[in-house]
Specification:
Arc Repressor Mutant, subunit A, Nucleotidyltransferase, domain 5, globular, single chain, 54% helix
C-alpha cells in the first residue's frame, strides 16, 4: 500500500473517548445508520452546539470517527478487525487505558497519515530537547504539507487531541508541551499489530524493524524489544527481508 501524500484529512480535535464509543458501537453490531445517530446524539452538546451544517465541525468529527472504525478503507479492514478483537479480549498484560490508546493511535495513523506525521515531529522535538512547541511543530509540518493555514490549524487540533489523550502534557509556558507517562507495550501480538499500523502510515509501506519500533511517531509508547522473526510470526500480513544479522526490513504484503 502506498499512502497518498499532501492530504491532511484529520482536521479536528477528537477525544479518545469518542473513538472508544465508536469502536464499542461497531463491536455491538450496530449498522452505519444507528452508529451515525448515536454519534450525533453523543456530540450534539459537545461540538458545534446548536448547529446542523453538513460541513460543520461536528460532521467533520463524525466523519473522522466513522472512517477509522466504521467505513474503514478496504485495505485497512483486517487491521481494524484485529483491533476490535483486541478490545473484546482485553489483553491481561496491558491495562485497558493503554490498550485503548495503542489501538486508537494505530488506527488513526493508518487511516490518517497526517496524525503519524505530526507525531513524528513531536517525538523528534521531545527527544531533542525534552519538550515540543506548537510553533515548531507547525513550521515543520508546513514544510512537509505546504504553507497553508489549513495545515497550521489541523496541526494545532491534532496537538490538542494529543493533550486530550494524555500523551502530551501542558507546561507553565503556553504552547510548550512535554510527554505524558510512557505506555508500556510488551505483548508480542500487540507490538506486531502496531508495527503493521505504522507501516500503513509510511509512503512505501516498509521500513527496518528498528526504525519502526524506535520511530518518534510512537513517542507515547515504550515498546519491548522483539526479534523480526517473532514479530512476523504474529503478523500474517507482514513480510521480512533480512539484510544482515541485526538488520531486517519489515514490509506490508
Amino acid at each position: 500500500m502506498t499512502r497518498q501524500t499532501g492530504q491532511v484529512g484529520f482536521s479536528q480535535r477528537v477525544r479518545l473517548e469518542w473513538f472508544e464509543q465508536t469502536a464499542n458501537l461497531v463491536m455491538a453490531g450496530n449498522d452505519k445508520t444507528a452508529i451515525n445517530e448515536a454519534l450525533q446524539n453523543m456530540l450534539k452538546d459537545k461540538v458545534s452546539v446548536g448547529g446542523q451544517a453538513k460541513a460543520g465541525n461536528r460532521e467533520k468529527v463524525i466523519n473522522i470517527l466513522r472512517k477509522v472504525w466504521v467505513t474503514t478503507p478496504p485495505l485497512l479492514i483486517p487491521l481494524r478487525d484485529d483491533a476490535l478483537e483486541f478490545l473484546k479480549t482485553q489483553l491481561l498484560s496491558v491495562n485497558p487505558h493503554s490498550l485503548s490508546v495503542v489501538l486508537n493511535w494505530g488506527m488513526v495513523m493508518a487511516v490518517y497519515p497526517f496524525w503519524h506525521d505530526v507525531g513524528t515531529q513531536v517525538g523528534r522535538l521531545l527527544r531533542l530537547q525534552g519538550s515540543a512547541a506548537t510553533g515548531h511543530v507547525q513550521r515543520r509540518i508546513r514544510e512537509q504539507y505546504g504553507e497553508r493555514e489549513t495545515v497550521s490549524r489541523a496541526t494545532r487540533r491534532v496537538l490538542r487531541s494529543y493533550l486530550d489523550w494524555g500523551v502530551l502534557q501542558k507546561t507553565s509556558t503556553r504552547g510548550i508541551y512535554i510527554t505524558g507517562p510512557a505506555l508500556v507495550i510488551d505483548d508480542s501480538h500487540l507490538i506486531a499489530w502496531l508495527v503493521e499500523a505504522s507501516l500503513h502510515a509510511r509512503p512505501n509501506g516498509s521500513a527496518s524493524l528498528k526504525e519502526v519500533v524506535d520511530s518518534p511517531s510512537l513517542f507515547p509508547f515504550q515498546i519491548r524489544p522483539i526479534h523480526a522473526e517473532n514479530l512476523v510470526a504474529d503478523a500474517p500480513r507482514l513480510d521480512i527481508l533480512r539484510h544482515g544479522l541485526d538488520d531486517a526490513l519489515i514490509m506490508l504484503q
